[in-house]
Design brief:
The complex is a heterodimer of chains A (about 170) and B (about 140). Chain A is mainly alpha-helical. Chain A is built from seven helices and no strands. Chain B contains five helices and five strands, in the order βααβααβαββ. In chain B, helix 2 runs parallel beside helix 3 and helix 3 packs across helix 4. The chains are: A mainly alpha (about 170), B alpha/beta (about 140).
């Protein structure tokens, strides 16, 4: 006796008019439904996790932008010495490098903020103005150097904005 | 060439300064004349590599590194320097790229064009690779 007949006999399905095909169809629907619910929950969980991770990195990027702006304000308002600039550049290099490397572990993207930062560091600290005023307590930037600083601030902001957009759009590894 | 000599900038100063001696203390020019030139000459004579460690200082101006490693290329040639030096900079890795890709080629060009570096202070005699020998004298 086939397994389906045994099942039919036990459950009395024959008397209700349901045959084995109906039973298999019902089982199929139930199983598919359960898989659907499971997939839905996992997708939602994955989506929420990815969103949280993305939000975290976006906030970090915003924080870097803020620190950059604060530094340029200090720089342009004669409140910082050349030695303090070097300490700030080094601190930011470490922060940005760390931010980029962790981002690359999580997402498929190519951030360019470290490149922008390093360019600023090299260009600014090689100027004759920076070196000639190295012993000063506060830097008083002439117009051309202020222009250079603002230009690099824009490069950094641009690279950082592009990074934020990439984080929003990209897939998680 | 497995054996290495080791030079830490931190042993020279925690606070590297500007490009020239006349611009401030612990300059690139001073570091070159007090440390790097002699250490590199010793490594070259003993046919071993010189490892220069840039880490643990307060931070560098690019001009400090340009002056120090640029003078080295000017006095010993790009080939000698590239083959006999190793630079460690775990805290700011970009300095290694800058030194090898920008500073050294620029100063090799300057060496070929015979444009001597500016000296803002009188230095003790220093070493230079000329022909096939290393000579020591006050070059400028």
């Amino acid at each position: 006796m086939a397994l389906v007949d045994v099942y039919n006999n036990c459950t009395g399905i024959q008397s209700t008019g349901l045959n084995a095909t109906h039973v298999l169809t019902i089982i199929n629907i139930v199983v598919n439904g359960l898989i659907g619910i499971w997939l839905g929950f996992s997708f939602k969980k994955n989506y929420e996790t990815t969103k949280s991770v993305k939000d975290y990195f976006i906030n970090e990027s915003k924080q870097l932008s803020l620190e950059y702006s604060e530094f340029t304000v200090l720089l342009c308002s004669k409140k910082i010495s050349p030695s303090e600039c070097l300490v700030w550049f080094k601190k930011m290099t470490k922060k940005i490098e760390n931010h980029q490397s962790v981002l690359k572990l999580e997402f498929i993207l190519e951030p360019k903020i470290l490149e922008a930062h390093n360019k600023f560091k090299v260009e600014f600290t090689k100027t004759t103005f920076f070196n000639e005023n190295f012993t000063k307590n506060k830097l008083d930037l002439p117009i051309d150097i202020q222009f250079l600083v603002n230009e690099h601030l824009s490069y950094f902001a641009d690279a950082n904005n592009k990074l934020v957009i990439s984080i929003i759009k990209c897939k998680r590894k | 060439m497995e054996q290495k000599n080791y030079l830490r900038v931190l042993d020279f100063t925690e606070y590297p300064g500007p490009r020239y001696c006349e611009q401030g203390n612990n300059s690139g020019e001073e570091f070159y004349h007090k440390k790097l030139n002699l250490e590199f000459k010793n490594a070259l004579e003993n046919n071993i590599k010189l490892t220069v460690d840039l880490d643990k200082t307060a931070g560098y101006a690019s001009s400090f590194l340009d002056e120090a490693f640029g003078n080295l290329v000017f006095d010993f040639s790009l080939e000698k320097v590239k083959n006999n030096i190793e630079i460690i900079s775990n805290e700011e890795k970009d300095w290694i790229t800058m030194i090898f890709d920008m500073v050294m080629p620029d100063w090799e060009k300057r060496r070929n064009e015979n444009k001597p570096p500016k000296k803002t202070q009188t230095h003790e005699a220093w070493y230079r690779f000329i022909g096939n020998t290393i000579e020591c004298r006050k070059w400028l």
